[in-house]
Amino acid sequence: MSKLTIVANIKAKADKVDLVKAELLKLIEVTRAETGCISYDLHQDNANPAHFMFYENWQSRELWQIHMNNQHLADYVAATEGAVVEFTLNEMTIID
Amino acid sequence: MSKLTIVANIKAKADKVDLVKAELLKLIEVTRAETGCISYDLHQDNANPAHFMFYENWQSRELWQIHMNNQHLADYVAATEGAVVEFTLNEMTIID
């Protein structure tokens, strides 16, 4: 199994930045404890505080997919319904 | 001085992927040796091989700006002239 890098970009509605940030922060400890999680770091754009980004490294795509189906991500989606204007996710490979 | 995360997205022309990749790879060793460089990792999108991404961490914005003005980046820009269709750069802060 080869490693997987995930880049997840989340853009919050202007008046929902604090809500989205709080919900994203809740994901970190529980996700870092998941099988296969190498790193899971949340960032905020210096020029646009509504733009958050998770940079994640996983032992394999299979283990990342288990994470994606976990309850805490479902809870995040429910808690931020209507508060996120854009979400993109890229699966990548470190080439050096 | 606070740390800085850089996310640089580079999209190559379809027929210039190998050229751009080769030029990006040349940047890695010299950049990692620069003062202030904590990490400098090149990725390729699994769904779009023309999409490259550097995930970078720097000790400070000042030291990153010295990097941005270095000769090897100027050489990269010259070597890939006309071969890159899109370039975006985000300055970010790790919040957890």
Description:
The structure is a homodimer of 96-residue chains. Chain A is α+β, with helices and mostly antiparallel strands and 96 residues long. The first copy, chain A, has one domain: Alpha-Beta Plaits. Chain A is built from three helices and four strands. The longest helix of chain A is centred in the N-terminal third of the chain and has 16 residues, at 17-32. The radius of gyration of chain A is 13 Å and the shape is globular. The model of chain A has no long low-confidence stretch (mean pLDDT 96). Chain A binds chain B through residues 4-5, 7, 21, 25, 28, 41-47, 51, 53, 55, 90-96, and chain B through 4-5, 7, 21, 25, 28, 41-47, 51, 53, 55, 90-96. Strand 4 of chain A pairs antiparallel with strand 2 of chain B.
- Give Rg of chain A in angstroms: 13 Å
Q: Which descriptor suits the 3D outline of chain A?
A: globular
Q: What is the N-to-C order of secondary-structure elements of chain A (H for helix, E for strand)?
A: EHEEHHE
Classified by CATH, the class of chain A is Alpha Beta
Sheet with most strands of chain A? 4 strands, antiparallel
Secondary-structure blueprint:
The structure is a homodimer of 96-residue chains.
Chain A: E1 4-12, H1 17-32, E2 37-45, E3 51-58, H2 61-68, H3 71-79, E4 84-94
Antiparallel strand pairs in A: 1-3, 1-4, 2-3
